[in-house]
Amino acid sequence: MSAEIVCIGQAVIDCITRGKEEKPHKKNVYRAENISLNTGGDAINESVILSRLGHRVKLVCGVGDDVVGNLILHEMERQGVDISEVTQTASLTTPIANLMVNTDGSRISINSEATMLTGYAPSEHVIKSAKVVSLASLFRAPLDNRETIIRLAKAAKAEGAILCADTKMPTYRKLNLEDIREILPLIDYMFPNENEGEYYTGETDYMAMAEHLRSLGVKNVIIKTGEKGCTVSGEQGSFSMPAYAVNAVDSTGGGDNFVAGFISALLHGGSLRECCQYGTACAAVCVQSVGATTGVKNRERVEEFIRENGCR
Question: Among 136, 270, 273, 288, whose CB has the most other CB atoms within 10 angstroms?
Answer without folding.
Answer: 136
